[in-house]
Fold Helix-turn-helix transcriptional regulator.
Amino acid sequence: MPITRRPGAYRCGLDATMSVLNGKWKMMILWPLSERPYRFGELRREVNGVTEKVLTTQLRELEADGIVHRTVYNEVPPRVEYSLTPLGELLNNALLPLEAWGREHLMDEEVVRSGS
């Protein structure tokens, strides 16, 4: 399912991919969503340092690009969960080699062993 939000704006596939991931926090948002759906507050705590406003903006962009799905439950108080779409899962899988490279070459061995 190709993303059509910015048709004709790309010079190559990498350019198109980077436009979806453009934003300091987007990859850090996608990572926990690969494990399970998150409520907004949970996701904000998981993505250390992101502000509520920026998280909202980046989630909306990821939703518009078909990467993240937003589920609103008809409850009081309202409950909203964010999860990856199948396209988002494919994108996260494409990021796995980058995560492995960073873990191998840039992280302290203690942090890697502890899983933090």
DSSP finds six helices and three strands in the chain. Residues 13-104 form a domain with the Arc Repressor Mutant, subunit A fold (CATH 1.10.10.10).
